[in-house]
Amino acid sequence: MIYMFTLFAALLTQAVSAEVITNVTGMTGRLETITCVEGATVTLTSNAQNVYAKAEAECKVSEEAEFDACLQAAIKKYTKFAPVKFRGDAIVGTKQFEMRINPAIGRGQLFYSIREGFHADTNNKGVALMFNRVGITNDEFLIESSRLSQDGNKIAMLMVPVRIRFLPDQLYFFYNCNLNWIH
User: What is the pTM of this model?
Assistant: First the structure.
């Protein structure tokens, strides 16, 4: 909830393209890959505000240094474990990003999409990825992270919305993800 309210203001004022530039968080470069392999938790998108409200209520007395860990623990408490992994790869020479959610063990694919967009900083010193499906407007897809590590190569939590035809929209929370920037 905290992340969602600050994100739209950040996107309007601090939007960046996939070109090599310095971001407010101090990262320089183009985000090339995101990998999250430790599993995830998931909830229906319609339940996300309820999850955020409960997590915020539990963590509002936490010190800022402890807030991220508290928020992560609270979100895990109110969402269901999903044995999946996430990978996002920038497509060379474009602003397109290929995203996949696969089972953690075995083969198969639960979600696949190629999106076009940009990355931006958020007020919480994280990164946001704003995409549209290639060639289709009014189909926004927003991925948001918790704070970047000091070196900018790790995030504690990544929030990925998933829309699959004929199924309710879901929101996945991936944990301990790695980022790769090309400088």
Answer: 0.78
- How many angstroms separate the CA atoms of 172 and 47, rounded? 12
Each residue of 46-70: pLDDT tens digit?
Answer: 999 999 999 989 988 767 768 888 9
pLDDT in tens, 9-43: 333 333 333 343 344 455 566 778 899 998 999 99
Q: Which domain holds residue 147?
A: 2-182
Q: How far apart are CA 45 and CA 47, in angstroms?
A: 5
Cβ atoms < 10 Å from Cβ of 58 = 16
- The total domain count for the chain is 1
Q: CA-CA distance, 32 to 22, in Å (whole number)?
A: 15
How crowded is the C-beta side of 71, counted as CA atoms within 13 Å?
22
User: In the structure encoding, which two tokens stand for residue 71, read together?
Assistant: 């928020």
With CA atoms as reference, report the closest residue to 40 among 126, 180, 161, 150. Answer: 161
Identify the residue whose tokens are 């879901």. Answer: 170
Query: CA 183, CA 13: separation in Å to the nearest integer?
Result: 23
